[in-house]
Amino acid sequence: MRYFLLSFLLFFCTGKISAQDFNYARKAVNILASDSLKGRGYVDNGDKLAADFIRSEFEKFGLQAFNGSFYQEFETSVNTFPDRQSIVINGKELEAGKDYLLDPGSPSLKGSFDVMTVTADEILDNAKFVNKLRVSSGQLIAVLPFDKSNFSKEQNDQLNGVINFLKYHSQNPSKGTIILTNDKLTWAGSVRQHPKPTIIIHSDSLDGSLKSLKLDIKSSFVEKYTTQNVIGYVEGKNTDSTIVFIAHYDHLGMLGPQATFNGANDNASGTAMLLSLAKHYSENKPKYNTVFIAFGAEELGLIGSKYFTENPLFPLSEIKFLMNFDLAGTGDEGIQVVNGSVYKDRFDSLVEINEEMNLLPNVKIRGAACNSDHCMFDQQDVPGFYIYTLGGIQAYHDVYDRPETLPLTEFENYFKLIVEFIDQL
Ligand SMILES: [Zn+2]
To answer: What's the CA angle centered on 363, arms 362 and 367, to 5 degrees?
Structure first.
């Protein structure tokens, strides 16, 4: 009976991921992407609430800390939007996040303003544009929607140059800029505050023409904001080399109390992968020392990972392989492996494991790309992959990237693939 019980237990323990583990990942995504974590940005301490959750999970799993703390603190500047925003056009108040966004570097502006509109063709006619610009003083200048594909590369470059001038340059004589667009609204973060505000309005949200508007937009620039990376490790059987798992936990925070950017796919999902692996390796002693890093301030420009690689808590040369999880929440069309062609042997073994175990629909190769935290390690010649899932819901850097619509389609198989890949290193 005892032997039977033992083999019964072994069977379940070596099953790599059980339903219970998957439920854990789902729970972690729901917590990290909940409204109460404020979009894991810099309004209402969203970053600190998220870091505290990750720290408490690390502690619960019995991970070890470097130098007695799971936190590595660092400073950044950041432009934030803690207050209620208001934009009224033709008597209708627009909805933050859905109808409009503010450029993340926008300063505050309050008042009623006339609007001068310009078309792409007018921008390309230099004399005409300069004249309109001069008259726009004291008004807002609005660039009407245009289809990029109607213009040559040189014309698009010129249009971009002028739009960047309007958005970021203090010599723009208008009070601020409006960009009307037919494209999906996609937000970002900013470590700067620009001299004039820019409002990006989706053209579908306009009833009638845009001749004037009433606005009260408020931002708050924080010169020195202390945020943190959360770092823990599990000692391996072999302590000569180190495996590193990373995922950024920060997101875009809030655009006033009206709009929270929950960041379920970006990157509560990758953080849930990191936590699931931390849980797994704390229960199953790994071959090598295994470090888990949840990075802060990725969305502000890879600031947390830059700080870590400049102030590493162990020699980066000890890293045998690194894996970055950012956007882990779908997988209907498989995964994309950044650095796959750089570390081709490793990529081939990932593909082989995937085929043998019949896990994901596709494992696609990609070259190097400086598009997430692994980039800072690339620059130090640390070998590693950045993996993101493909297919499924396309919400990204918007108010629709929410936990209840994130499917985690292939999460279980993705997790199994990573564990097997690492076990074979
Ligand atoms: Zn991300």
So the answer is: 140
Q: Write out pLDDT tens, residues 119-138.
A: 999 999 999 999 999 988 99
Average pLDDT score over residue span 353-370 = 97
CA 327–ligand 1 middle distance (angstroms): 6
Selection from 253, 242, 279, 231 nearest residue 422 by Cα: 242
Residue 364, both tokens: 């696609």
The Cα angle at residue 107 between residues 144 and 50, in degrees rounded to 5: 105
If phi > 0 it is left, if psi is from -120 to 50 it is alpha, else beta; for residue 256 that is: left
Which residue segments constitute the domains of the chain, with CATH numbers given? 15-80+223-423 (3.40.630.10), 86-217 (3.50.30.30)
Q: Is 376 exposed, middle or buried (0-12, 13-18, 19+ CB in 10 A)?
A: buried
CA of 251 relative to ligand 1 center, distance in Å:
7
Q: Which residues are bridge partners to 79 per DSSP?
A: 221
Question: What confidence tens digit (pLDDT) does each residue in 237-290 have?
Answer: 998 999 999 999 999 999 999 999 999 999 999 999 999 999 999 999 999 999
Spacing, Cα 84 to ligand 1 middle (Å) = 26
Radius of gyration for the alpha carbons in the chain, expressed in angstroms and rounded: 24
What span, in angstroms and rounded, lies between the C-alpha atoms of 62 and 56?
10
Torsion-angle region of 97 (φ positive above 0: left; ψ -120 to 50: alpha; else: beta): left
Distance 238 CA to ligand 1 centre (A): 32
Q: Tell me the CA–centroid distance for residue 396 and ligand 1, in Å.
A: 9
Ligand 1 centroid–CA 233 distance in Å is: 22
Copy the structure tokens of residue 320.
């045998």
- Residues 94-104 as b or e (16 or more Cβ within 10 Å = b): bebbbbbbbbb
Report pLDDT for 215: 97
Q: In this structure, which residues have their CB less than 5 angstroms from ion ligand 1?
A: 266-267, 326
pLDDT of residue 21: 78
